[in-house]
Amino acid sequence: DGGITQSPKYLFRKEGQNVTLSCEQNLNHDAMYWYRQDPGQGLRLIYYSQIVNDFQKGDIAEGYSVSREKKESFPLTVTSAQKNPTAFYLCASSIDLAGFNEKLFFGSGTQLSVL
Amino acid sequence: AQSVTQLGSHVSVSEGALVLLRCNYSSSVPPYLFWYVQYPNQGLQLLLKYTSAATLVKGINGFEAEFKKSETSFHLTKPSAHMSDAAEYFCAVSDGQAAGNKLTFGGGTRVLVKP
């Protein structure tokens, strides 16, 4: 079955630690996205990538970093500079460069909490 | 800049009753409009999408939404609620091909279905 796989499902971060959230898709989609979800605030865009080896900041990129070395993979690193990292993180993809006008396919999310 | 407002963070309906979720948007250009549904601890799934064709859009699971330009609204309805409709619903807007095109989500409306 084609889809988006996020891992781990739950992740705990210690103070000052960087953590990496994995996102893999086998849909052959060009575009991939990372969103942060906080209760009552909807989804906010962290980073997105429309093609391999290229990515752009979203609305809340500070304290996060990404890479896009392969079409299938778009890992998100939550750095120690992100002071309020507790949230539900969602990875998504879409078919092509039309990106935000197209249907987004979402993974099941990673819940990140601070110890 | 575009924005989305969903009226009511929580809605409670009886099984078999009408479901009405309100969404108002602002956009400087003709928008693309979306409704997504999120079941507990999962990613989002597309319910329906408006792209300037018919103003009444039919989606999956018996949902439909009507685009009203004069009211800048895109309310979601379902004639008869089912227990399986209990979920969180998100309205989203995209500015289409405008420069800096992004998808902006509303804060979400959580639907509780009472037997």
Q: Specify the number of helices of chain A.
A: 0
Succession of helices and strands of chain B? EEEEEEEEEEE
**Terminal Cα span of chain B:** 41 Å
Instruction: Tell me roughly what share of residues is in helical segments of chain A.
Output: under 10%
- Shape by Cα distribution of chain B: globular
Distinctive features:
heterodimer; A: 115 residues; mainly beta; seven-stranded mixed beta sheet; four-stranded antiparallel beta sheet; globular; B: 115 residues
Task: Explain what the structure shows.
The complex is a heterodimer of chains A (115) and B (115). Chain A is globular and about 35 Å long. Chain A contains no helices and 11 strands. In chain A, strands 2, 4, 5, 6, 9, 10 and 11 form a 7-stranded mixed β-sheet that branches. In chain A, strands 1-3-8-7 form a 4-stranded antiparallel β-sheet, with no helix packed on it. Chain A is mainly beta and 115 residues long. The model of chain A has no long low-confidence stretch (mean pLDDT 92). In chain A, 0% of the residues lie in helices and 49% in strands. Chain B is an all-beta fold and 115 residues long. Chain B contains no helices and 11 strands. In chain B, strands 2, 4, 5, 9, 10 and 11 form a 6-stranded mixed β-sheet that branches. In chain B, strands 1-3-8-7-6 form a 5-stranded antiparallel β-sheet, with no helix packed on it. In chain B, β4 (32-38) and β5 form a beta hairpin. Chain B is globular, with a radius of gyration of 14 Å. At the A-B interface, β5 of A face β5 of B.
